[in-house]
Design goal:
- By secondary structure, this protein is of the alpha/beta class.
- It has one domain: Vaccinia Virus protein VP39 (Rossmann fold), CATH 3.40.50.
- It contains 6 helices and 9 strands, in the order E-H-H-H-E-H-E-E-E-H-E-H-E-E-E.
- Strands 1, 2, 3, 4, 5, 6, 7, 8 and 9 form a 9-stranded mixed β-sheet that branches.
Length: 237
């Protein structure tokens, strides 16, 4: 399927186990996180266990559909495992952008290009990337038209937008909440369907079937219970 949801916490655990089995676990250890928190060591703490299912799905989709020499852009890349994992899989043309100035401290700086840039308004040439990934990013400061206009400009014909978002079928009120200094939107089913419809106007189409029904909330964050939705869209050639 090209649009589906995290159905249980067990799926996250299973995904992390599979990542570890494959040698693709790039999450920073708790020990290193503590050392960074007290400023004993530098660098960026990467990954989190709650972001296992959607990260693995994204990696597996890219492995199946995008060759290792193709250009991949990760938006909201600060602290994300995506590019670290793709680097381990020998993808060689990797770029990450984020508003956090510490992005330049991310791992593998000699192999991965990192930029402090607003991903809704970049300076990259049009049709620069074969795939764009966004792991729990676009729901923060969400502006569908501005986002889709820029990502559509950046994605090559035949390329992909692969993303996960915070999701719950009915609307969860997050008004007045500003994680990362931006308004937070937990997508409802109606909002996600509307996003897919708008994406079609920018040349994107779902790569397969859609399943957005849920069993239980798998995530608890900032006092809200919800889950993740993952999707893959293809830019029409």
């Amino acid at each position: 399927m090209s649009a589906e949801v995290l159905l249980s916490h067990a799926q996250n655990v299973k995904a992390r186990t599979e990542m570890t089995r494959r040698g693709l676990n790039c999450t920073s250890s708790l020990f290193k996180r503590i050392l960074r928190k007290v400023h004993f060591i530098g660098g960026v703490s990467v990954g989190e266990c709650n972001k296992s299912w959607d990260v693995l799905k994204s990696v597996e989709f890219i492995e199946k559909n995008v060759l290792p020499d193709k250009a991949v852009l990760d938006i909201g890349a600060y602290g994300s495992e995506m590019l670290c994992l793709l680097h381990q899989l020998e993808y060689s043309d990797l770029t990450g952008v984020d508003l956090n100035p510490k992005i330049i401290q991310m791992p593998h700086q000699d192999k991965i290009r990192y930029f402090k840039i607003d991903f809704m308004q970049t300076s990259f040439d049009s049709a620069s990337f074969d795939a764009v990934t966004a792991i729990s990013v676009i729901e923060h400061g969400f502006d569908s038209h501005k986002l889709l206009a820029e990502l559509s400009r950046l994605t090559k014909p035949g390329g992909y937008l692969i993303a996960s978002v915070d999701y719950w079928p009915s609307k969860i009120d997050t008004s007045g909440m500003y994680p990362f200094g931006m308004p937070w939107n937990i997508f409802s089913k109606d909002e996600l369907l509307a996003f897919f419809k708008e994406a079609a106007a920018f040349g994107y189409q779902l790569c397969g079937d859609m399943h957005l029904d849920v069993i239980e909330p798998s995530i608890l964050w900032k006092g809200k219970r919800y889950t993740f939705a993952w999707f893959a869209l293809k830019k029409v050639e």
